[in-house]
Amino acid sequence: MTTRTIFITGANRGIGFALTKAYLNRREYRIFSSYRSPESSGQLLSLADLHPEHLIPLCMDVCDTGQIHEAAAIVRQYTNSLDILINNAGMLIQEDNFGDMTADNLLKTFETNVSGTLLVTQNLLALLKNGTDAKIINMSSEAGSISTWEKNIIGSYAVSKAALNMLSKIMSVQLKEKNIITVTVHPGNIKTDMGPENDTSPEICVGEMLELIDSLKPSDNGRFMRRDKTALAW
Predict the structure, then answer these.
(1) How far apart are CA 117 and CA 145, in angstroms?
(2) Which residues pair with 84 in a beta bridge?
(3) Which of 77, 121, 141, 156 is least enclosed, having the fewest CB within 10 Å?
(4) What Å distances lie between residue 24 and 18, 35, 45, 69, CA to CA?
(5) β-pairing, 55-59 with 84-87?
(6) Could you give phi then psi for residue 137, rounded to 5 degrees?
(7) Hey, what's the torsion of the CAs at 16, 156, 159, 139, to 10 degrees?
(8) Whole-angstrom Cα distance, residue 111 to residue 101?
(9) What is the DSSP string of 122-164?
């Protein structure tokens, strides 16, 4: 069986953890799943203990350049290629709307949601270039759609996701010639630490996410879409 490789950021909870569990059911995958701090990694580390041949947990804050370099070096010890990168790590600061927004909150949100995605992708790019039908999935949000923005969406989060959408577009253009597909995905309103209690559970959304990732083809490069592949306006 040919081993395929996937790297998932922010995998200690929510969508990232649900995706990790789902890919563990596909025994051809070796999964590199990152978490920001040991204090929040218990369930991921326990899962890795049960599947040491398939799941490699990595302590990596996407805002820490040193940790990103170290994580990439560990991945290279296992493989010289990466087939899928899911930039899932994200931050949302509640009650941070225009009028009350601070530069500090905006920069913190931007650092995780935008700079983190950039740095992780650049550090793994050489591996992605060696991947088979390599794909980059940047987890964004409908909140980042400028043309459909609604006033009840938190300001700093919306600004960061709009910036992430632009970054994704740049990546899709620059990496097309390397045969790497880059897409921007709004996974929906998911019940996570960042989402309301009445939202969809991560486990329910993951089935559609896997179908989306499996179905991606070169003509999808540069798209902004929901997890059911319907288009979103920029």
Answers:
(1) 18
(2) 6, 135
(3) 77
(4) 10, 17, 14, 25
(5) unpaired
(6) -115, 110
(7) 0
(8) 16
(9) HHHHHHHHTSSS-EEEEE--GGG-GGG--TTS-HHHHHHHHHH
> In the sheet where 55-59 sits, what is the strand order?
55-59, 29-35, 4-8, 84-87, 135-139, 181-186, 224-226
Amino acid 189 reads: N
- Label the pairing between strands 29-35 and 4-8: parallel
pLDDT for 204-226, tens place per residue? 789 999 999 999 999 999 999 99
Helix, strand, coil percent content, the chain, rounded in steps of 5: 45, 15, 35
Structure token digits, residue 163: 């910036």
- pLDDT at 199 > cutoff 70: no
State pTM to two decimals: 0.93
Which amino acid appears at position 229 of this protein? K
Scanning the structure block, which residue is given the tokens 């709004």?
Answer: 186
Classify strands 224-226 and 29-35 as parallel, antiparallel or unpaired: unpaired
Binning pLDDT at 50, 70 and 90, where does residue 151 land? Answer: low
3-class DSSP state for residue 118? Answer: helix
